[in-house]
Specification:
0% strand; mainly alpha; single chain; 51% helix; 8 helices
Length: 150
């Protein structure tokens, strides 16, 4: 792979990755496989950091490198998930431990029952005029002409 391609892959977030203790192994991974720095998300970094705590991050990256060596970039739709799956399978016990510590994420949507309670009681205006399609609901102001619906 050309040096220009390797530099392009390492821009931005990847530059911070290379500062990690396992940065040299990642640089080799970027240069010899189709993996890019943008394919490594925060969860993968968290798992790599946990592996580094037990001094196994470089071995995990080497295993990923072996598994991804011949895979072309176009063959995989979601490289982040693909990379993370390889990394996760390296040490399933550590991954499960991390997953338990992290806990479940907070739901983005609120429960529909909670939303109903937050709105509070509501009553319709019983004196409101009846809706008739094509008819204006407000009378014209003084000095204005009514616009006829067509």
């Amino acid at each position: 792979m050309a040096a220009a391609d390797a530099n392009t892959k390492q821009a931005g977030f990847g530059a911070n990755l290379l500062k990690k203790p396992y940065g040299k192994a990642l640089k080799d991974l970027f240069e010899t496989t189709a993996v890019m720095a943008s394919d490594i998300d925060a969860k993968a970094v968290q798992l790599l950091d946990a592996l580094q705590a037990s001094e196994r991050a470089e071995a995990a990256i080497a295993t990923v490198k072996e598994g991804l060596g011949a895979v072309e970039r176009e063959k995989v739709k979601n490289w982040r998930a693909y990379f993370f799956t390889f990394l996760r399978k390296y040490d399933k016990e550590l991954y499960e431990k991390m997953r338990e510590e992290r806990g479940k994420p907070n739901p983005r949507r609120k429960d529909s029952k909670q939303q109903e309670q937050e709105v509070g009681p509501y009553s319709f205006n019983k004196d409101a005029p009846v809706f008739v399609p094509g008819q204006t609901w407000l009378p014209p102001a003084e000095g204005e002409q009514a616009v006829a619906a067509s």
